[in-house]
Amino acid sequence: QVQLVESGGGLVQAGGSLRLSCAVSGRTFSMHAMGWFRQAPGKEREFIAGIRASGLSRVYADSVKGRFTISRDDAKNTVYLQMNSLKPEDTAVYYCAQDASYYSSRYDSEKDYDYWGLGTQVTVSS
Fold first, then answer.
1. In the prediction, which pLDDT does 103 show?
2. What pLDDT score was predicted for residue 1?
3. Residue 20, Cβ neighbours under 10 Å: how many?
4. Contacts (Cβ under 8 Å, ≥6 apart) of 3
5. What is the DSSP letter of 90?
6. pLDDT under 70: residue ranges of the chain
7. What are the pLDDT digits (tens) for 23-55?
8. How many CA atoms lie within 13 A of 116 on its CB side?
9. Structural contact between residues 9 and 29, judged by C-beta atoms closer than 8 angstroms
10. Residue 33 near residue 11, CB atoms below 8 Å
């Protein structure tokens, strides 16, 4: 059974930083793209960052480009999201996701992902 478990969320002041982690168990990790999404109250879930199986290619939403960094540690079956210069509009539940395909080159859309975590709350105060 596949499990994705996010951690690292919390309350932070504007301008601060957080690092989210997502540990994957129950299936292979290194051969699959990983992504981070978020959903704010009253809004649809949106893609914010993705990383290919190789780890050499990443993609970001314009809203977080230059502030957030996605990375992966295949030895730990974990993907990370380093979030700097946080803004109140970054407040949301953050989800990680895994693509079931092997070495896919498509990893920047919700439809590219098959397995999801339950999310972790990030709240940024002004």
1. 86
2. 87
3. 23
4. 24, 25, 26, 117
5. G
6. none
7. 999 989 999 999 999 999 999 999 999 999 988
8. 15
9. no
10. no
